[in-house]
Write a structure and sequence with these properties.
Elements (H helix, E strand, L loop, with lengths): L3 H6 L9 H4 L8 E2 L5 E4 L2 E5 L12 H14 L15 H13 L4 E5 L2 H12 L5 E5 L4 H8 L5 E4 L4 H18 L4 E6 L11 H6 L7 E5 L14 H5 L7 E5 L9 E5 L1 H8 L3 H4 L6 H16 L1 H20 L12 E6 L2 H14 L2 E2 L1 E3 L8 E6 L7 H19 L16
Parallel strand pairs: 3-12, 5-6, 5-7, 7-8, 8-9
Antiparallel strand pairs: 1-2, 2-3, 4-10, 9-10, 11-14, 13-14
């Protein structure tokens, strides 16, 4: 018998193999200072493009005040126990009511964490008799939830409605043979890497042909899309046709927790079957009341979303004018596609951070195909025109270096040793 840990440590982890050089700089970086459009990294001030604080609520003075007041009054422990047994309060139920009204649904269930919640939702909804059909570029929390599913699961090509219809035909044929089970379709409102919206309107249209239920993960759409910020479904005019609407508080709300909304019957079912909530401590009241305040600010201050989109358009139009490829994004998420390998990506990223004061995230193989680099920029309502212009100038200059091949042979030292 072999030692389990020896077997694990002997594997060639495609990401972890670079940890000796990357840790503390390219991976697990330490950001300091207040959460804002400018922070400190490696003891230098940088323009920050890696925070999902879309509406700039993290350091909003009213948010900071309510967080401080509620924590001082209740601490972080209250209430103790799970919601079902001893952790329920009027404030939890108020937030659920407020969210239901905001996203046009009958009822809502609060969740402690988005990732954990999505896994448990999928597990609760589908038995071995049911079929799940999901978008190929679904978030990891959806993919991991599918791993719990003991029945059939079919994948459709990303945002390819014709392929989704093909998979629905497959599911229908299989279920007619079995004579039991149903179909759940899962997609996202906004895909976090490419920034493109899920084709919710077209998916909903397929309900005229097939009897399926639709679960939408709208972590990036909630607060950023729609007339009032109710998300991608509102933006596309099909929010009421989404059977289960899921989102988190960690992005536009700059907080902790998540929620799922839908018809009262199915939400009540989840309330009594969602293992990640039944067997976990209730969301602390400091976050609950803080989230009530954040939702109120979103409703009363539409200029926050307007400012976010003003900044996003200025950044995206500026990049496109300078010849950068932003792919198919139609959200505020701004991916910048370039050609090159991991050596070029890390050398360029180091140049951006150290010499131009621009901090953003980079994605390379094996997450995406070889010889492709994606720099992912997240605009917020806090960014200034100066931030945007400085970033456009920096990207223009480093692209000249990349195209000239000057990053190809650069040796990247162990940056953690220089901090």
């Amino acid at each position: 018998m072999k030692d389990l840990f020896d077997l694990l440590l002997g594997k060639d982890n495609p990401i972890g193999r670079h940890k000796d050089r990357a840790h503390g700089y390219f991976t697990f970086p330490k950001l300091e200072g207040e959460l804002s459009s400018q922070m400190y990294f490696n003891q230098k001030k940088v323009i920050m493009w890696s925070l999902n604080d879309y509406l700039g609520l993290a350091n909003h003075h009213e948010v900071r005040q309510i967080d401080a007041d509620i924590t001082a009054k209740f601490g972080l422990a209250y209430p103790m126990g799970s919601r079902m047994m001893s952790g329920n309060t009027e404030f939890h139920e108020q937030l659920e009511r407020d969210l239901s009204a905001f996203v046009y649904k009958e009822d809502t269930l609060l969740l402690n964490f988005g990732y954990q919640g999505m896994l448990s939702i999928i597990d609760s909804l589908c038995s071995r008799h049911d079929i799940i059909i999901y978008d190929a570029e679904s978030h990891a929390c959806i993919i991991d939830g599918l791993r719990l599913h003991t029945g059939h699961r079919f994948v459709f090509k990303h945002n390819d409605i014709a392929d989704l219809e093909k998979q629905l035909h497959r599911a229908k044929k299989l279920l007619e043979t079995r004579k039991e089970g149903g179909v759940l379709v899962i997609t996202e409102g906004v895909f976090g890497m490419a920034g493109d919206q899920g084709k919710l309107k077209e998916i909903v249209k397929l309900k005229e042909k097939f009897p399926f239920r639709l679960l939408v993960d709208d972590a990036h759409g909630f607060g950023t899309l729609g007339i009032k910020g109710a998300g991608t479904g509102e933006e596309q005019g099909v929010q009421k046709e989404i059977d289960l609407y899921f989102s988190t508080f960690v992005k536009s709300m700059a907080s902790l927790g998540a929620f799922v909304s839908g018809d009262k019957g199915i939400i009540d079912f989840l309330r009594y079957t969602l293992r990640s909530q039944i067997f976990a401590k209730s969301l602390p009241i400091s976050f609950v009341i803080g989230n009530i305040k954040r939702l109120e600010l979103i409703k009363l201050n539409p200029q926050l979303k307007d400012k976010l989109w003003h900044n996003a358009r200025q950044l995206q139009e500026g990049l496109r004018t300078r010849g950068f490829d932003l792919g198919v994004t139609n959200s505020v998420i701004t991916p910048v596609y370039m050609k090159g390998g991991i050596a070029e990506a890390t050398a360029m990223l180091k140049d951006l951070r150290e010499n131009y004061g621009v901090f953003c995230s980079v994605v390379v193989y094996p997450v995406i195909p070889k010889d492709t680099i994606i720099y992912r920029l997240i605009p917020t309502a806090n960014h200034t025109e100066t931030d945007i212009l400085a970033t456009l100038d920096a990207f223009t200059k480093v692209k000249v270096q990349l195209d000239a091949g000057r990053y190809k042979q650069v040796d990247i030292p162990n940056m953690a040793e220089t901090i």
